[in-house]
Amino acid sequence: MASDLERLAREVTAALPSLDLESRAVGLAVYRLLAAGTAATPAAIAANSKMPAPHVAALLTSLPTASLERGEVTAFLGLQREPGQHQITCSAPRRGAWCAWDTLFLPALVGTPARVESRCPVSGTLVRMVVDPRDGVREVSPAGTVLSFLDRPAPYSGAVQAEFCRWIHFLAGDAEAEAWINANASGNEPPPMVALSLAEGVELGRRTNAMIFGASR
Known about the structure:
Distance between the termini: 19 Å
CATH topology of the largest domain: Beta-Lactamase
Mean pLDDT: 91
Order of helices and strands: HHHHEEEEEHEEEEHEHEH
Radius of gyration: 17 Å
Number of helices: 8
Shape: globular
Number of domains: 2
CATH class of the largest domain: Alpha Beta
Largest sheet: 8 strands, antiparallel
Low-confidence stretches: none
Helix content: 25-40%
């Protein structure tokens, strides 16, 4: 599966919005602040990224996928302030992830273990796990949980959640994964889906983190 993960990582990286070096630094600072429960204001982002606050404020107006309220970033590329279907808790109150896979790669970017909760869209089963930046996934319930993923992600056109995230879930087992993929396989959308193990999802996240953010393990 390693070769397929490398292909997927490259395709996901190509499909998502590209970030220059300054946008990477700002995006990583936003992730850290949101995960820690700190308001992601231009001043806080500047302090975290060691960039001038006026420059950060200007960058935020064009940061892809970022949502701002009164100048504060409330969501960015997979992580949002308000809890949702996929919930992730680092050292702060619960936050929302845009899709199940986000919860597998975000802990490595913020450097903090995370408790994750989601629901299988087929059975309604509550899925729980801990995702560690170094050791990967542990304390998984149900034990057979897998991850649905798009096999051929479409290029980003401004709606990551609608075009990408809505298909990517934790499924309580192989039967649920098969049912989810089969139920969504008709018509022209989504692109073909595959089921990944949680370990494969973490490894895919490691590779895309390196490609998008220049982040090492």
